[in-house]
Amino acid sequence: MLQVFHDMGAVLVIGANAIVEVSHLRTMPRLNWALSRVKVEPVTEQAAKAAAELLKGAGLHGHKYAIDATVAEVALRQPKPVAILTSDSDDMTKLCGNKVRIVPL
Predict the structure, then answer these.
(1) Which of 43, 53, 71, 77 is the most buried (most CB within 10 A)?
(2) Residue 27: which CATH number?
(3) 82 touches 75 (CB < 8 A)
(4) Overall average pLDDT of the 43-58 stretch
(5) DSSP string, 21-45
(6) Domain that holds residue 96
(7) pTM attached to this predicted model
(8) ∠ CA 55-61-64, rounded to 5°
């Protein structure tokens, strides 16, 4: 999938805290390989506050949806067009509305 997006000229971007969500001892070598091929965006204080506003606007709670909110915030600040590949399409739709394309996995 990474090669397909590269061939399309797409830039793959993730928020830095998503690394924590997908980290597992057995996946670290593959994760490190994948991370070398994507742009990792920092989650700054400003980004965290913007993600909190997305949660508030969607009526969601940070405890359960914190990572989703930061993923949405990273996506919303990227140059358009933007698509999110996600297994949480309902949550991402609540957080992003129609500002990005949601692609369910």
Answers:
(1) 71
(2) 3.40.50.1010
(3) yes
(4) 96
(5) HH--GGGHHHHHHHHTTSEEEP--H
(6) 2-104
(7) 0.87
(8) 110
